Amino acid sequence: MNDPLKESMRASLEAARKKEYASLIEETKEPVPLAKNVLLAFVVGGAICLLGQVFYVLLTMAGLADKTCVTLSLLILIFLGSVLTGLGYYDRLGKIAGAGSIVPISGFANSVVAPALEWRTEGIVAGLAAKLFTLAGPVIVFGVTGSALLGLIKYIWLALTGGAL
After folding, report:
1. Which sign, positive or negative, has the C-alpha torsion 43, 45, 48, 51?
2. Is the entire prediction scored with pTM above 0.85?
3. Phi-psi region of 103 (alpha: psi -120 to 50; beta: other; left: phi over 0)
4. Do 15 and 68 share a domain, yes or no?
5. Rounded to 10 degrees, what is the CA torsion of 55, 57, 60, 62?
């Protein structure tokens, strides 16, 4: 038979342990450097956006149309974010910059590519195809892939026809 007194004592002891553990965590936890984190997020996020603006200006100086420059600038940032994720650098940047590396479009590329890198353990079909959809979702992946492909087709078509749709 269960002794109610023993059960009560066991519950009290468990509650005291949890309370003591919580106080130990609170004592040993390092304070969050909020000002430093906000500044790093601002600087890194701004630098990524500045890089996108540099690409835009360079493409504009090359004589491309405004919409084309915007599209190509975004595609370059997505490509760079994907490559840096594949090489392992974007995660290191994220540890330093926090939201500053997540908010720009390169952070989106990171969120799509990072889970896909784990495909090796499960094979190319079950691994790569499934991992691409785990974090960003099929709507985002298909939307970006489709729009990039259609943008490329439109760009080629316009280049071949001299601007006629």
Report:
1. negative
2. no
3. alpha
4. no
5. -70
Give the CA dihedral 74, 77, 82, 87, nearest 10 degrees. 170
The residue type of 140 is I
CB contact at 8 A, 99 and 87: no
147 is written with which tokens?
A: 């729009």
Q: Are 52 and 74 in contact (CB under 8 A)?
A: yes
- How far is 40 from 37, CA to CA, in rounded Å? 5
- Looking at the fold, whether 41 and 25 belong to one and the same domain comes out as no
Domain containing 22 equals 1-30
pLDDT 10s digits, 51-110: 999 999 999 999 999 999 999 999 999 999 989 988 889 889 988 888 888 877 888 788
